[in-house]
């Protein structure tokens, strides 16, 4: 401590610092394996024996979910970057941090299933970063409203995956169920922070963009 006593205190981060930090986080999201801070919800489970068709089906669904988590990183990073208040920024950063576990869990599951993550990861990240930037520029209450809508759509999407994932793939199912619960909590937290619900055409537009992403990521 005595050694640090004579050093000037670090200056607060300015916008350019935050932009560089968001781009750096983006490169790590796309190109560097993420390490989870919490154990996977499937920890301690016996790895299930899967029929070949089930294994391939689960690979594709978990690849889609991994892409969703790449997008979540880009959205929260860009929304934090453009947030007006420190309170909103801290909220986006904290939620993004929790989403990192989802990113790590889905990547690990894809590997266990012998699959590959999407080849278009940089594209998904960039597209989501653009969406999140627009939401952030619109102002905090709309940006929080964008979180509410996104997380609710993701929650419904994950509920759909729980119907499609093979019953035998208990590991993927445990991960998706935990994610579904946490996405719902993210929506509730954003609502509690004063989110404005988005006007009618925007949720439909977001659903269309998500449909394109999920359809393509299912294959590549
Ligand atoms: Fe997530
Ligand atoms: Fe979330």
Question: What's the tally of helices?
Answer: 8
Q: What count of structural domains?
A: 1
- Examine the coordinates and then state which fold CATH places here, giving the name of the CATH topology: Ferritin
Give a list of the ligands. Answer: fe (ii) ion
Note the gap between the termini.
52 Å
Stretches with pLDDT under 50, minimum 5 residues? none
Name of the top-level CATH class: Mainly Alpha
Total count of strands? 0
Helix content: over 70%
Helix vs. strand class? mainly alpha
Shape: globular
Under CATH, the homologous superfamily reads: Ferritin, core subunit, four-helix bundle
What is the succession of H and E elements? HHHHHHHH
Percent strand = under 5%
CATH architecture: Up-down Bundle
Q: How confident overall, as mean pLDDT?
A: 90
Summarize the entry for a quick read.
The protein is mainly α and 220 residues long. The protein has one domain (17-30, 49-217): Ferritin, CATH 1.20.1260.10.
Would you write up a description of this structure?
- The chain has one domain (17-30, 49-217): Ferritin.
- The chain contains 8 helices and no strands.
- With 220 residues, the protein is mainly alpha-helical.
- The mean pLDDT is 90.
- The longest helix is centred in the N-terminal third of the chain and has 31 residues, at 52-82.
- Bound molecules: fe (ii) ion (2 copies).
Indicate the topology.
Layout: H1 2-5, H2 15-31, H3 52-82, H4 86-112, H5 121-137, H6 140-164, H7 170-192, H8 201-219
Helix pairs in contact: 2-3, 3-4, 3-5, 3-6, 3-8, 4-7, 5-6, 6-7
The protein binds fe (ii) ion (FE2) (2 copies).
């Amino acid at each position: 401590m005595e050694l640090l006593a004579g050093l000037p205190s670090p200056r607060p981060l300015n916008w350019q610092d935050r932009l560089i930090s968001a781009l750096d986080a983006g490169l790590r999201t796309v190109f560097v394996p993420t390490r989870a801070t919490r154990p996977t919800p499937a920890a301690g489970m016996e790895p299930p024996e899967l029929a070949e068709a089930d294994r391939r089906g689960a690979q594709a669904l978990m690849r889609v979910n991994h892409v969703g988590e790449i997008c979540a990183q880009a959205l929260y990073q860009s929304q934090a970057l453009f947030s007006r208040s420190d309170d909103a920024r801290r909220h986006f950063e904290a939620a993004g941090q929790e989403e990192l576990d989802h990113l790590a869990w889905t990547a690990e599951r894809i590997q266990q299933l012998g699959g590959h993550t999407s080849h278009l990861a940089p594209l998904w990240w960039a597209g989501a970063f653009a969406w999140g930037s627009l939401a952030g520029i619109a102002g905090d209450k709309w940006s929080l409203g964008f979180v509410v809508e996104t997380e609710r759509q993701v929650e419904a999407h994950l509920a759909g995956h729980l119907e499609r994932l093979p019953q035998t793939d208990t590991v993927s199912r445990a991960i998706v169920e935990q994610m579904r619960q946490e996405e719902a909590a993210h929506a509730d937290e954003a609502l509690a922070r004063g989110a404005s619900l988005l006007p009618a055409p925007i949720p439909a537009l977001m659903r269309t963009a998500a449909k394109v992403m999920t359809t393509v990521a299912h294959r590549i």
